[in-house]
Amino acid sequence: MVINMPENAGKMQGKFLKGQSGNPKGKAKGTKNKVTLAAESLLSGELENICRRLIQEALSGNMQAVKMILDRILPIRRDCNVTLDIPVLHTPADAIQSMALITQAVMRGEISPGEGESLSKVIEIHVRTIELHDHEKRLNLLESKNTQ
Fold first, then answer.
1. Helices 94-107 & 113-147, crossing angle to 10 degrees?
2. Tens digit of pLDDT at every position of the chain (148 positions)
3. Residue 123: count of CB within 10 angstroms of its CB
4. Is 0.90 topped by the overall pTM?
């Protein structure tokens, strides 16, 4: 059995090499697509009237208008403010007490596990920053001793 392969098989067929993007950086963040831009221009100046009408419909008992307001205009908050009395971190050792306070708050139900995880990540980043600063100070001290 003979399989005929095209002449250009395995060779560069376009401007870009296989696996190489023509736009490696991708679309710029915040760039709106054409449909969104068209909808915004179509609704410009009328959005306030539409929202006002939607609120009137919801107040008169239209449950779909209520659902639309709750889903689109007032969606469920993903993040919320968390208040915990955590001491200032001066050394990596200070993080132990802070992590214990976060763990206790999660276990008592004062904050959600997700909120506890987010707070723990903030503490972890802060500790890494302290350690990096300490390493830089120690390195500078060693370098100054070697130059003397």
1. 170
2. 566 666 666 665 566 666 677 777 777 787 888 888 888 888 788 888 888 899 999 999 999 988 888 888 776 766 677 788 888 888 888 899 999 999 999 999 988 898 899 999 999 999 999 999 999 999 999 988 888 7
3. 19
4. no
